[in-house]
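Running log. JK asked me to keep both predictions on one page so they can be read side by side. First protein, sequence followed by its tokens:
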Amino acid sequence: MNHIVPPSLLFDVSIAVPQCTPPKTKRSAPPALPESSRLLHPGTMDAEVSHPDLRVGWHADGLAINCHVEGRSRPVSGSGSDPEVADCVLLWLDMRPSGNVHRATEYCHHFSLLPVDDDNDGKPGIFVRPIAQQRAQRVESDPKKMAIQSKTTETGYQLSAWIPGSQLSGWGQIAETRRIGFYSVIRDFEQGDLPLSTAGDFPYSYDPSLWLQLELVD
């Protein structure tokens, strides 16, 4: 059945995200997250599709991301200089979500996480991306202060990343607000784009009102 309005848009989705243990040092590996950190995928209400294992954890010091992609038959590849043709995890974050703002504020961020960057000897990489029509930016996020690791296999990859709170505008007050806007798309050039929620013609790439909300719990 074709829906004029996707079923996932009929609900205000809020997903609980548990705390995690932060890296001990700047050079430590990003944390591995448990099953309790795995996100519900509202997009499955719109179509009978599977979604990769995506997990999120938080700490007063920052945000952790784990992603496990399977089902591939070709090697993972990508270029940090051209994210449109890279296998990657695309993230959109909003430190002050209201649910009714249609233009990215200074508290919004967009990153791409590449399990393989062919421009850097195949090493993984984090890249800061612009958001169309964003009003302003308070924090110039520095990927060099973030951490990412990945492991590729014949059928996919596992990726883990850590984004320090110092690289997220508004994270300093997160212990009081305990809520962030969040959206992701697993860009896979063998299996197609795999959005966390509704995509298609909806402007998720720059409209924060379409993003989900994560409730940061103890």
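And the second, directly underneath as requested:
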Amino acid sequence: MMTMVEMEDPGLVILPTHRMVSGIRNFSLDSLIDNLMEHFYIDEHDVGAYNAKDISYTIQNILDDKGLHTFVLYIGKDSPLYSLSLKSLDVMKALHPNRHSSYLDLDVSILHTLILDRILGIGEKELANQENLKYTHSILEGVEEIDQGNQQMTFFMSATTIRQIQEVSLANEKMPQKSTYFYPKLITGLVFNKFR
């Protein structure tokens, strides 16, 4: 069974899927930042006096302001927020020479390739076994999970756009895991229930 929705339908929304990371041994923030500086411009945003909701608003404002190819790293109230803006897509082309440019342009591809895999060691095996990563569509949940000590860090990102999905599909590429969350969802059991 399937549902057909016009891609240009204004009611079709894609929500972002943020990555919550845990279980990284011998984690060092200084080392992480040093490694990130190779491919990202890094800005600090002080949120020390903010509550979780205020931090969430700040994260959303950063993502809205900077757009695609920017991530926000949150590791707790004792540290600032870090916005990470990709310097150049050339590194993605070098690491994935056989992939179409539409795949390389995806924030999910950039995050997984340059940060999760190369820096934190969360590769295809760990992703398949669902190790180290949990996912959320809520910025507030991503913040609260850190504040409650359930996760080590959260990487917040902008949603994949309809245009990006179209370009990846037309190039016969596959989207990376957890790239899209289409909203609204169909009501569960809609075609099975008998209405009187």
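Observation for JK regarding the second prediction: The domain at 13-183 is CATH 3.30.1760.10 (Conserved hypothetical protein from pyrococcus furiosus pfu- 392566-001, domain 2).
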